[in-house]
Each structure stands twice: as C-alpha cells, then as structure tokens.
Write a structure and sequence with these properties.
This protein is α+β, with helices and mostly antiparallel strands and 194 residues long. It is 56% helix and 13% strand. The model has no long low-confidence stretch (mean pLDDT 89).
Length: 194
C-alpha cells in the first residue's frame, strides 16, 4: 500500500487523503452529488489502495458502480451512528418514497420528493406521535451529512425538494419493501407500549 501511495503524485496523495477523510466522516459517497463526484471517481481509480488502507483500520469499502454509490462499513460499534426514533422513521420513509418513485423514473433521473411527501407518508402510516418540524429538519440535515439526500431550497418549508440519492439503497438494503414497513410498525408498537 505504501508503495502505491508513494507512486502517486503530490496532488493524488492529497486527493487520497481527502477522499479517505470524506468516507470516514460521511460513510457514503454518491456519484450523483456534486461535492462527491471527484472523490467517487478517484476512489474507483484507486480502489485497491483504498481497500488496503481501510482494511488496516477494520473497515471495508462497498462499491456499487451501477448505483454510483460507495459505503464504508465494518466499523466497531463505537463508530456506528445510532439514530434517534424520528431519524430512523424519516430514513425509512425516504426509503419507501425512493422505492415508490423509482417505478415512475428512468434509471438516469434523480429521485426527487418534497418535504410535504414525508409528512403525507408519515400520516398514512398512522404513527401515533406526530413528527414535529424541528425534528424533521434535524433529521434531514443529518441524512444530508451522510450523503443520503440532497436538500434543494429552504428545508423549513414543505415545498422544499429533496433528491434521494441511491446511497439510501446501501443504507437500508431491504430487498423486500415489506421489511421496511415491518420496521416502521415495530417502532410504532414499541412507542405504544412506552
């Protein structure tokens, strides 16, 4: 690995460092997100070097060229983000919306929804505790940080648009969308018992 790094130019070594840090900070990279594009293609070009580097740290890189997505996985429990209830529900709802909207979209198009779509889906799921605006905004900003969505416009308005990135398929790998519904129902049932 060190030989491969030494063979890189100073610029490439800087790109390697920036890409590795971006993956460590954000877990996911999406080819479709402007600020990820360069890192995504650089990682593709030097995948073996990244694999060796992250293997030393106990991580594994998952690259899905068809989706244009990268996921860093295998971290210890101490390095794993634990989502709050509302963050989990928003993530699951976005996964459902991605699945639904994918049927109406070609492979070359981004999946776009509005904040109002999240509220509508949340209401349709008949979850007892309502999702307040502050928690929703906080959840969306968190998901943006991890490159699962892009926010277009003012996130405080219901007309704000969200691009749901294909990295969401790596975050929630459910092949069967009923698993997502079952997870939502489980969260709702636990809340009812509390």
């Amino acid at each position: 690995m060190l030989d491969s790094l030494e063979k890189m130019t100073i610029t490439q070594q800087g790109q390697f460092k920036d890409t590795a840090n971006k993956l460590l900070a954000n877990t996911f990279l999406s080819r479709d997100k402007k600020d990820n594009k360069e890192a995504y293609y650089f990682l593709m070009s030097y995948k073996e070097v990244f694999d060796e580097f992250f293997k030393i740290l106990g991580y594994e890189i998952e690259l899905d060229i068809q989706l244009g997505a990268v996921k860093l996985s295998g971290a210890s429990a101490a390095n794993t983000l634990k989502l709050k209830r509302d963050e989990s529900l928003v993530l699951l709802i976005l996964r459902l919306l991605y699945h639904e909207k994918m049927k109406d979209t070609s492979l070359n198009e981004n999946i776009v929804c509005a904040v109002s779509d999240i509220h509508a889906k949340y209401d349709n799921l008949e979850i007892k505790k309502k999702l307040n605006k502050t928690d929703l905004i906080s959840s969306l900003r968190l998901l943006r940080r991890y490159n699962l969505i892009e926010i277009i416009g003012d996130v405080t308005t219901s007309t704000c648009r969200l691009v749901i990135l294909p990295t969401i398929l790596m975050a929630i790998k459910s092949e069967d969308i009923t698993e997502v519904f079952n997870t939502i129902n489980k969260i709702n049932a636990e809340e009812a018992q509390a």
